[in-house]
Design goal:
The chain is of the alpha+beta class and 436 residues long. The chain folds into 3 domains: 13-44 and 389-431; 57-316, Jelly Rolls, CATH 2.60.120; 325-385, no CATH class. Helix content is 29%, strand content 25%. Strands 1, 5, 6, 8, 14, 15, 16 and 18 form an 8-stranded antiparallel beta sheet that branches. Residues 344-367 have a biased composition (Basic residues). The chain crosses the membrane at residues 402-423. Residues 69-314 form the L-type lectin-like domain. Residues 343-368 are annotated as: Disordered.
């Protein structure tokens, strides 16, 4: 005769059901936990990318002499930097802590010391006849003894402004400027990670900024990510493994809204596109912009050497300012199509038994550019490259995820409640004594 409390024989209904389903419950809980962990940590996170190298159609046009460069000599900056008669810089004014040595190939805008500023600004603006289509090439080098990228700062900037700027706190210049700035930022001020912004977590990085005279529009605390027109990672710009300077090339064509920023970090004519658009508002670049380059250090520092500035106007084959990059690129595409047709004709002549192929009506590069423009427009309107359909499905996916997370939380909470009840019943029966 059993005079004790047989737990197995006297379990309540809930406990008996949980005991029978214990292994399956544990397995289900483990699977749900794995799903939650995968959704939270297993998905790929955006990685800062280097500037993607695309076929340089504008450069191809220049090489094909469809676009001619005409040097604007009064905006050149290079050796010899100083006019021996006046002992002043040629074509440019300077300020801050800029250092220049005799017979040097460069001027040092800032040195490896804290809280330094150095800059040069052109005395004359780009003339009205040249300002509609021009390019500026800046030869520079950012280097220092510090080997840890996270311990250098602050960077340099290229300026196109309505007037020469005064010294200030935005990479050495005043922050209430009128115009456009291309910033090479070498120190990250933003805490944590910035998702959904290309290159925001990889420094040095490039940020294209604009302003119309508002003080404090550029926010150093978030590295200008809230106000930038575009950006890209440039994390190999510091201490490049070659002795030649790196190069930045900025091109602008007002009538077609074309603006591009490219870099050749190793100085070997291997240009990579950082930012390019064909819908830049004409109001963002002054009608006759001044050209400037500045650099700044804070508590962290590095050297910024400026080797030269070259500004060229861009003319078409007839000597007039370039009006439309797209029209000229289409002309280049038509030339490529004609060459392709000629090649196909020769090939068919050699192998006349092959069926005739239809000639391409549009080249791959033209279709690619049209696709990129459409994606950019959809991204601006709907925050998704696929347009309204992509926005709708993204909304559905977000709602599904929230519903899934809620369901998982409810299931896990219910499993936890069952476990707590079993534990409570066990404690009660351990404390019970006496006869049935």
């Amino acid at each position: 005769m059993d005079i004790g409390v047989g737990y197995g024989a006297q379990r309540p209904r809930l406990g008996r059901q949980l005991a029978r389903a214990r292994n399956r419950t544990k397995l289900g809980a483990a699977l749900l936990l794995l799903c939650v962990l995968w959704l939270l940590f297993g998905r790929k996170k955006p990685v800062a990318q280097e500037p993607a190298q695309e076929p340089n159609d504008v450069q191809s046009l220049i090489q094909e002499r469809e676009i001619r460069r005409e040097n604007i000599r009064y905006l050149n900056f290079g050796r010899p930097f100083v006019n021996p008669a006046t002992l002043a810089l040629i074509n440019y004014d300077n300020g801050g802590n800029m250092v220049m040595k005799k017979d040097s190939d460069y001027v040092r805008l800032v040195s490896e010391r804290p809280n330094s500023v150095g800059y040069v600004f052109s005395r004359l603006p780009v003339s009205l006849q040249d300002a509609d289509s021009f390019e500026a090439i800046v030869d520079f080098k950012i280097h220092g003894q510090q080997t840890r990228i996270s311990l250098i700062g602050d960077g340099m900037a290229f300026w196109l402004t309505s007037q020469p700027l005064s010294q200030g706190d935005m990479f050495g210049m005043q922050n209430d400027y009128h115009g456009l700035a291309v910033i090479v930022d070498t120190f990250k001020n933003t805490p944590g990670k910035m998702r959904g912004n290309r290159g925001a977590n990889s420094f040095p990085r490039v940020s294209i900024q604009s302003n119309n005279g508002f003080a404090g529009k550029y926010n150093k605390d978030d590295d200008g990510t809230a106000t930038e027109l575009g950006s890209c990672a440039l994390h190999r710009a510091y201490n490049t493994p070659v002795d030649v300077p790196s190069r930045m090339r900025v091109r602008y064509i007002r009538s077609s809204g074309y603006f591009s920023v490219e870099f050749d970090l190793l100085g070997n004519d291997n240009w990579k596109t950082c930012f390019s658009t064909t819908d830049l508002a004409a109001s963002l670049v002054p009608e006759t912009p001044y050209v400037g380059v500045s650099a700044e250090t804070g508590e962290l520092f590095h050297n910024v050497d400026l080797y030269g500035i070259e500004v060229n106007s861009l003319k078409d084959a007839s000597g007039r300012p370039v009006q439309s990059i797209d029209a000229l690129i289409d002309r280049l595409d038509d030339k490529i199509d004609a060459e392709t047709k000629q090649h196909e004709a020769k090939r068919r002549h050699r192998r006349f038994n092959k069926p005739k192929k239809n000639a391409r009506r549009r080249s791959a590069s033209r279709l690619r550019r049209a696709e990129q423009r459409a994606k950019q427009l959809n991204k601006e309107l709907y925050n998704d490259e696929r347009g309204a359909i992509g926005y709708f499905f993204n909304l559905l996916w977000r709602l599904f995820k929230y519903a899934l997370y809620t369901a998982m939380f409810v299931v896990l909470a219910y499993i936890g409640l069952l476990g707590y009840r079993v534990y409570r019943d066990k404690r009660k029966r351990r404390n019970q004594r006496g006869l049935l």
